[in-house]
Amino acid sequence: MTITDETRADAAEPTLDHLVSDFYRYQDLLTPREAEQVGRIREMFETRVKPIANEYWARAEFPKQVIPWLAELGTLGPFVPEVRQFENSALYRGWVALEMGRVDASVATFVGVQSGLAMGAIHVGGSIQQQADLLPRMARGELLGAFGLTEPLSGSDSARGLRTTARREGDEWVLNGAKRWIGNATFSDVVVIFAKDEADGQVKGFVVPTDAAGFRADKIEDKIALRSVQNADITMVDVRVAESSRLPGIRSFKDVATVLRLTRCEVAWQAVGVAVGAWEAALAYAKERQQFGKPIASHQLIQDLLVRGLGNITASIAMCVRASQLQDQGLQADEHSALAKAFATARMRETVAHAREIMGGNGIVLDKGVARFFADAEAIYSYEGTREMNTLIVGRAITGQQAFV
């Protein structure tokens, strides 16, 4: 279904309290049904995720107890017709990413990996049987997945630089290589692994069980961002999977790019959420913190920082809204999501820095509400395409000139 102006005719009636950061009331673009579901997700994150977020972040552990709640609310695979709980738009899915990001970017990243990347790869490249077998279980949180693209020596150049190989032997494939920064991989049941076919040099996709012989996932320790996300280094030595584990719709990197196109805009929305979370904490602090005999919110310099942050958030929401609308209309191209991701993450980085500045020394401790966002922003700024790579995608679109190495 394409979301049209007619289907949104009833969207003007408010059904959900507005975030103070939604200064231009973009939330009103949601349908009442979408707004109602956003309200449930907001409540869950405020009451069940927010109270434990700092604790798990400090311990570098993932709160697995949230997975059934996420599944119950339909956050896993909402774009997949076979498993989504109700008809929804890209705008709705983006707003959900914002809501999750404004409370805990680590949980939002888990959802992005499970729902967008792993399920997205199976939705785009899987056979009818694979989709029927895997996607419902993943939507219920019964089968956890990861997305194995990035490698120790291949990140931005994944289109040409993959070193993981796949060799067919009869009805099996033999995989060898390494992957890095693979979210969820330490506790997932399956990982979608992308490897170059030795026969034709093209990228293929495989659903690999994490208990396969020769497969190993080691947690990456000592991170300073997204500490609750369980990133792993994966090594594969003669890992054998059946031909039935190959995703037949993944025949080249162009097909992988289709999956990334599904998720990149939602990462931009998530970045807006991180900016919102930090800005909201700084605003609340500024109203309470007394200096020179009055709240610091009454100081001109503090108001200037708050307004700069609000401007960044508002501009980023506007760009994300339009990119999502283009997706709903079937008009979104790579450059649209690339610009949204590059812009929103840059403005996020600036906004969380302003929020930390407003809070002074208290901005570097977890319990004051900004430090975690300040740190997590650094990871979001880089993953799902760095600012530089997304800039080159947009630059190619507007100049017609290829500037990639």
Automatic annotation (TrEMBL):
SUPFAM superfamilies linked to this entry: Acyl-CoA dehydrogenase C-terminal domain-like, Acyl-CoA dehydrogenase NM domain-like
Required cofactor names: FAD
PROSITE patterns, per database record: ACYL_COA_DH_2
Location of the Acyl-CoA dehydrogenase/oxidase C-terminal domain: 256-398
Keywords recorded for this protein, A-Z: FAD, Flavoprotein, Oxidoreductase
Domain Acyl-CoA oxidase/dehydrogenase middle: from-to ranges: 146-239
InterPro entries referenced in this protein's UniProt entry, alphabetically: ACX4-like (IPR045008), Acyl-CoA_DH_CS (IPR006089), Acyl-CoA_Oxase/DH_mid-dom (IPR006091), Acyl-CoA_Oxase/DH_mid-dom_sf (IPR046373), AcylCo_DH-like_C (IPR036250), AcylCo_DH/oxidase_C (IPR009075), AcylCoA_DH/ox_N (IPR013786), AcylCoA_DH/ox_N_sf (IPR037069)
Gene3D superfamilies recorded: Acyl-CoA dehydrogenase/oxidase, N-terminal domain (1.10.540.10), Butyryl-CoA Dehydrogenase, subunit A, domain 2 (2.40.110.10), Butyryl-CoA Dehydrogenase, subunit A, domain 3 (1.20.140.10)
Acyl-CoA dehydrogenase/oxidase N-terminal domain mapped to chain residues: 39-142
Membership in a protein family: Belongs to the acyl-CoA dehydrogenase family.
Protein's recorded name: Acyl-CoA dehydrogenase family protein
